[in-house]
Specification:
alpha/beta; Arc Repressor Mutant, subunit A; D-Maltodextrin-Binding Protein, domain 2; six-stranded mixed sheet; three-stranded antiparallel sheet; 43% helix
C-alpha cells in the first residue's frame, strides 16, 4: 500500500488560515506571500484528493472534508512541534519559575505548560497565578524568571511589549438590550481590589463622561468578580479573554458607555540573559499568545 505524506508547511498554512479566518492573515503570520499560501493550499488539496475550502459570503469556510482535516491537522502540527522541540532541546533541565496574570491561567497553563513538560521531562516548572503588582515585584526580586502581566505605569528593565489588547465593558448576559447607566443613580461597578489597572480605567472613563459611579462589589480575584457581574451586581471593565459563564461584552454605543482604550500585554524577564530553558519557555508562551488572543489585538511577538 502506498501512503500519502501530507506536506507539513502546506498543512500549517491551511490550519493557520482557518483559525485566523483569512489566508491573507495566515500569510502575514507565517511570513509568506498570499500567492505562496494559495499554492500550498492547492498542493494540500491535491495530496488529500478533496476540496478543503469553499466560498462562504465574502470569505472562505472549510468543506466537510476540510473540517475533518483541520481537526487532524491541529493534532499533527502539535505533535510535530512537540517532537522537534524535544529533539532540539533534549538536554534541557533545571527549574523555570513562571508567573501569569489571572486572565491567562486557564488559557496558557494547559496549552503551554503541559506541552513543555512533555517535551522536557527533566525540567521542573514553578508556576504562580497572581495579580500584576505581585508578579512585577517577584520578577524584580528574582523570585520569578518570567511573567506575563498587563503593562502599567511601572516598567522593568527587561520587559517587552508583546500585544495591545482592547478593553471592554462587561455585564450580565441577561442585561436588557436597552439598559442605560443613568437610569437609577450612580453606575454600579464591580471591580478587583485596588490597585487595579482595569478599575482605574473604568473610573477614569466614567469621570471623563461626567457620570457618577459607585463600587457595588469588590473582589480579591477574578472568580468572584465574574460571579458578581453575572449576577447583575454591577458592570466591569476587563478584556474579552476567557469570559466566564453568564457574562457578555457590552456595546458602548448601545448602552451609552464611554469608549475604552487598549491595554498593553508585557513579557517581563528577570534579566537580559536567561537560561536556555527559560528562553525556550518564553518563546513558547509568545507563540501561544499569538494564537489565542482575539483578532482585534495588535500582536507583536
Amino acid at each position: 500500500m502506498r501512503f500519502t505524506n501530507l506536506d507539513m508547511d502546506a498543512l500549517r498554512s491551511f490550519v493557520t488560515g482557518m483559525e485566523l479566518g483569512s489566508f491573507a492573515r495566515a500569510a502575514d503570520r507565517l511570513g509568506r506571500s498570499t500567492s505562496a499560501i494559495s499554492a500550498q493550499l492547492k498542493k494540500l488539496e491535491e495530496q488529500a484528493g478533496v476540496s478543503l475550502v469553499r466560498k462562504s459570503g465574502r470569505g472562505l469556510a472549510p468543506t466537510t472534508s476540510g473540517e475533518l482535516l483541520l481537526s487532524y491537522g491541529r493534532r499533527i502540527l502539535d505533535l510535530n512541534d512537540e517532537a522537534v522541540g524535544a529533539v532540539k532541546d533534549a538536554d534541557l533541565e533545571g527549574w523555570v519559575r513562571l508567573g501569569l496574570q489571572e486572565d491567562f491561567g486557564d488559557a496558557l497553563l494547559p496549552q503551554v505548560l503541559g506541552r513543555f513538560a512533555r517535551s522536557h521531562p527533566r525540567v521542573s516548572i514553578e508556576g504562580r497565578i497572581a495579580r500584576n503588582s505581585e508578579l512585577i515585584e517577584k520578577v524584580r526580586s528574582g523570585d520569578l524568571d518570567l511573567a506575563i502581566a498587563w503593562a502599567g505605569e511601572e516598567t522593568l528593565p527587561f520587559a517587552r511589549r508583546i500585544a495591545e489588547v482592547p478593553l471592554c465593558w462587561l455585564g450580565a448576559a441577561d442585561l436588557d438590550a436597552d439598559w442605560r447607566p443613568d437610569g437609577g443613580g450612580p453606575v454600579a461597578l464591580a471591580a478587583l481590589e485596588a490597585p487595579c489597572l482595569f478599575r482605574s480605567v473604568a473610573c477614569d472613563r466614567l469621570d471623563r463622561q461626567g457620570r457618577s459611579w459607585r463600587l457595588a462589589f469588590v473582589s480579591p480575584g477574578l472568580a468572584g468578580l465574574g460571579a458578581a457581574v453575572a449576577a447583575g451586581l454591577g458592570i466591569s471593565v476587563r478584556t474579552a479573554i476567557g469570559l466566564p459563564n453568564g457574562v457578555r461584552v457590552l456595546d458602548p454605543a448601545a448602552h451609552d458607555l464611554p469608549e475604552l482604550p487598549s491595554l498593553g500585554l508585557t513579557l517581563h524577564r528577570a534579566g537580559k540573559t536567561l537560561s536556555p530553558t527559560a528562553e525556550h519557555l518564553a518563546s513558547m508562551l509568545c507563540e501561544t499568545l499569538a494564537d489565542i488572543l482575539p483578532d482585534s489585538c495588535q500582536v507583536s511577538v
